[in-house]
Each structure stands twice: as structure tokens, then as C-alpha cells.
């Protein structure tokens, strides 16, 4: 029972998604496009460990700080204080952060860039400060979380691609890292939308904690209108990106426009007419699904190129 509660506490499904995305780049995209890499299989697994343990610690501290709000927003999903005590939660938080920082130090040492440990330290600190302060402010917390999610993709390039750059392969390595940046931007845009939607969904509990999130300051109707307006940014950018990069590959273009962009249009329809908490929960889950579909495009692109050779 405690194991199940712990897995729920650390949002194991989200962690699995992070691992899968990083593995897709390492073993599918980099392999198909012959990208030079630095980390061995074992070293890369340590990078994965560092990423997911620090992320898991972030989820734990989030639930510790949000326990009172969660009693209102999602009473059936409260874990801290019911299935796991606050003291145990803090113990898990410090343990996971320690594992993550040690793992991060190891990977930084392996690529001879000890200064890169700062990435993990800053991430852990930002997650702590975000939950204790920034999440109470309009947009600030939303942007920080979105940046950290995008970093979980970019970090693969920082530790595996950049250290392998030589005078001979600099153009190819730059292109590979640019693709990682593109997907990081994609993740940032959709995560920002989702964070605002979640704030609208949780407005009742957040009011109890005296937060100043966007829907509390402006009201649910105005906040959802902002989400609707912001949705045009990824809609336009991803559509242009797809035509600019895949106009000569109809299968990939179709995937991006039909499988990824059509659900976004569906989301925009749902959010503009959303009224109940159930509506916002559906919209939030839909955005999460769209993010997954977008990330899976790296698999579609890689396999398409591989079998076209």
C-alpha cells in the first residue's frame, strides 16, 4: 500500500513520460541521424536517474505545500497526511534530491564538465522556491514549471551532444541540438497552457492559500480567454514548422497536422466553452495527451527517415 501511495506521490506516469522522451532521442533519433554522443548506456541511465529523482522530489514538495488546497481541489487524491505523513514526505524529498544531485555530479564528472552540476542544483532549488513562493504569483510559477519541463528534454543535448562536438562534426551536432531546442520550445508552450488551465481548475483551493494566480486575479472567464488566445501561438508555430520542415515528407506532415494539431483545435473548442471543474480537468488532460503525441513525432520522423534510406 505504501509503495502505491509513493508512486502516486511522485507522479510515476509523468516520470515514465520523461524517461521515454529522453530514450527516444538517445537511442532512436541520435542513432538514425548518426549524431555523435558522449555518454555510454550506463552513464545515460545515471542522467535519467538524476532527472527523474529531482523531478520526483519536486512533486513531493508540491504535495506537501499544497495539502490544504488539495483537500478542496482533489480530496480523493490527497496522499500527504493520509497515506504518507508529512515527515515521511520530507524524508523522501531530501533522499530523492540527494540521489539526483549525486547522480548529476557523476554525469558531470564523466563528461569533464563539473560545473554542469549547477543545472541540477538550480533545478532542485527552483522547484523548492516555486512551491513555497513563485506558484502563488500570476504566471511566474507557470513559466518556471514550463521551463523546467523543457529543460528535461534539452538536458539530453547538454550532456550527450555538446561534449561530443569536434571541428569536423560541429554542423551536424548543432543541427541535432537545434532539434532538441525545437522540441523543448514545443514542450514549454503546451506546458504553459496546461499550467494555467490547472490554475483555473484549482481556483477554489488556491484561494484558501491566498494565492494570486491568473484566474484568481482576473476570474475564470478571462483566464480561459487568455488560454484560448495563447493557444494560437503553438497552433501557428507548429503548423509553420511542419510545412517548413516536412513539406517533402507527406506522412510526417500528415502526422503533425492531423494527429497533433487537430487535437489542439479540439482543445481550443473545449476551453472556450468550459464552465465546470470537470471541463477544465478534461482540457488539462487533453493538453497532456497532445504533448505526448508531439513528442512521439520524433519516433515517427526517425523511423520514416530510417526506412526511406
Question: What does this protein look like?
Answer:
By secondary structure, this protein is mainly α. The protein has one domain (2-308). The protein has helices at 2-9, 12-32, 41-65, 67-73, 86-110, 117-132, 140-161, 170-201, 203-208, 214-218, 220-230, 232-246, 250-272, 277-308.
Keywords for this structure?
309 residues; mainly alpha; 14 helices; 80% helix
Give the structure's gist in a few sentences.
The protein is mainly α and 309 residues long.
User: Which residues form runs of ≥5 with pLDDT under 50?
Assistant: none
Helicity level: over 70%
Number of beta-strand segments: 0
| Radius of gyration, taken over Cα atoms and rounded to an integer in Å | 20 Å
* Biggest beta sheet attributes: none
Number of domains: 1
The total count of helices amounts to 14
Structural class: mainly alpha
Strand percentage lies at under 5%
Q: What is the chain-wise order of helices and strands?
A: HHHHHHHHHHHHHH
Q: Overall mean pLDDT score?
A: 90
Q: Which geometry do the CA atoms define?
A: globular
In terms of topology, how is this protein built?
Elements: H1 2-9, H2 12-32, H3 41-65, H4 67-73, H5 86-110, H6 117-132, H7 140-161, H8 170-201, H9 203-208, H10 214-218, H11 220-230, H12 232-246, H13 250-272, H14 277-308
